[in-house]
Amino acid sequence: MEKAAGVSSITFTCHFDTWGFIYKHAHEAGNFNGPKVVDEQPDGFVAVPVSGPTLVAVLETLWREQRNKYRSAGNRAIAKRIYDVTSTTVEAIDLEAAERGTPIPPVVIDAKHGTADPQP
Q1: Is residue 54 within 8 Å of 37, Cβ to Cβ?
Q2: Which residue has the higher pLDDT, 111 or 59?
Q3: pLDDT interval class at 115 (50, 70, 90)
Q4: pLDDT (0 to 100) of residue 101
Q5: Would you say 89 and 58 are in contact if contact means Cβ atoms under 8 Å apart?
Q6: Are 19 and 109 in contact (CB under 8 A)?
Q7: How far apart are the C-alpha atoms of 120 and 101, rounded to whole Å?
Q8: What pairing do the DSSP bridges indicate for beta strands 45-51 and 9-15?
Q9: In the sheet where 39-40 sits, what is the strand order?
Q10: What is the pLDDT of residues 5-49, one digit of tens each?
Q11: Is the dihedral of CA 23, 47, 74, 85 positive or negative?
């Protein structure tokens, strides 16, 4: 979470419905500040820039959601997939390099766009 908190901005690239899931579950978190811009991409995808505090809110919410036994198996699976991809992307960020101007890679939630499942 400390690394996520140190990010000034990161972009989620995913299907509109996937962003809707993230928004629906994280928008009530204290640090969540809804994005001002949602850039529509081809094939129903969106690119959504979020701040570090919003990233922390998303991670915390998804972590809880994937473990909530009162949610459906489908909701838990979606939350787990998004959490796994997001946390793996965040862990790979080199904050010192980012401070020197190296771009922070986006969180890409779609297997066909190069995101491999981080869990076997």
Answers
A1: no
A2: 59
A3: very low
A4: 86
A5: no
A6: no
A7: 33
A8: antiparallel
A9: 39-40, 45-51, 9-15, 107-109
A10: 888 899 999 999 999 999 999 988 778 887 878 889 888 899 999
A11: negative
Does residue 80 register a pLDDT over 90?
A: yes
Q: How far apart are CA 62 and CA 32, in angstroms?
A: 13
Closest CA to 32 of 62, 10, 11, 52: 52
Residue with tokens 């198996």: 73
Contact partners, residue 42, CB within 8 Å, separation at least 6? none
Amino acid at 13: T
- In DSSP terms, 40 is beta-bridged to 46
Give the bridge partners for 108, in sequence order: 13
In the block, tokens 């579950």 appear at 25
**Helix or strand or coil: residue 93?**
coil
Q: Please give the single-letter amino acid code of residue 50.
A: V
Q: Which amino acid is located at 6 in the chain?
A: G
Closest CA to 43 of 10, 82, 16: 16
* pTM (2 d.p.): 0.86
Helices H / strands E in the chain, number of each: 5, 4
